[in-house]
Amino acid sequence: MSNLVNNELLMGDLRKNLLKLSIPTMLGFVLQAVYDMVDMIWVGRISASAVAGVTIFSTVFWLVTVLNEIIGTSSVSLITQSYGKGDIERTRRIIEQTLTFKALVAIVSALITSVILKPMLSFFTSDPLVLEAALDYGYIRMFFLPILFLSYSVNTALRCLGDATTPMRIMIISSIVNMILDPIFMFDKIPGTNIPGFNMGVFGAALATVISTIIAFALGFYVLLRGNKKININLKGLIQLDWEIDKKLLTIGLPTGIEMLMRNLSNIIILKFVSIYGTNTVAAMGIGSRLFSFALMPIFGISSGASTIVGQALGAEKIDKAIDAAKFSALVNVIMMSFISLISIMVPDKIMATFINDFEVIRIGIPMVRILIPSLIFAGWSIGLGSVFTGSGYNLPFLLASIIARWGIQITMLLITTKVLNLSEIYIWISFTASEIGELITILIHYNKGKWKTKRV
To answer: How far is it, in rounded angstroms, from Cα 270 to Cα 287?
Structure first.
């Protein structure tokens, strides 16, 4: 039975509503990225080998999160469109199934990956110090994978209902906990003080992240279970599987999941190309990856809000509002990334020195920062417009764009520049810009075709 709701996001000034929804999300994502960067800053105080180890594990780890991406992307379309239509009962069941189904998938993934983790990491390095750091950081992260998956889901569900403030507060709390625990767990004495720590090294960094993730999940789950004026879940619904919903959770986001898999596989190959240039270049790449992820967070924040509005607008058959939300999202993203790019071009040495004091790593990283970060202008444009695909459930363009950009353009370019022409590592960074341009062109083509306008889930 449907229960009509007052869909406040589609009423009044759309742009103001989008910013109201997106800014808390963006701030939460940015702070979450800050603690990822703080992790890397502390790890950089240990050694370049420690940075390289964490970088290698992180690359492999994102392969495992493909299933989280599939179910999460599907849930955005299902929750927003059901809520946009006013079907509260179905919205509640979708949220419950997302949590239950994700937990089961994460348990299976964690078990399988833990068994094959060491041989996977050994593919990238024979350096025992790098491998040891990767395993110390990796095993505990895999053990708590179900909690990580669920922490994403509770926040996504709240945002899809139009509540971006609660997830922001949760992410702020978990980020602060992580940043406080990092130096306590990692070092024998907290840097800059005489206060004793636990001296766990990179394992301590992983443990701090795990604890903060548990806190984030617990807070979000409590909010959903307690309920609010929008919706609440119940424990009975969490112990029942609904195949009709579960099937959609697996299929709607499948193109996005395959896209993420292809992207992560390409990242593994890219890392293999990077490793040709030695540990210092791998360390620089690890720092660059964290910087790239940090700069992406404002983009994801704005686009997450846009996807919510697009889904609710399509559910309410208001296509013009979906178009306005996507275009405004793209514009805001481009403006933000232009500003961040200007900073990266002006002070790349200071940015690198924040993470590590190794002169050679900094030298390699300066051109990387100047090339890698400005490429996000193109990414912001494509992700902003791409919010129409996430909101509608028509995710095939993401897959096509990724295959063309990563495999058709970037991998081919790296093969030629590193293996055939034996050029310097600077062409690794240039390949990222070429890839982002290719992805943008593909997204623009599919956005203008307009098939997403008629897609419903």
So the answer is: 15
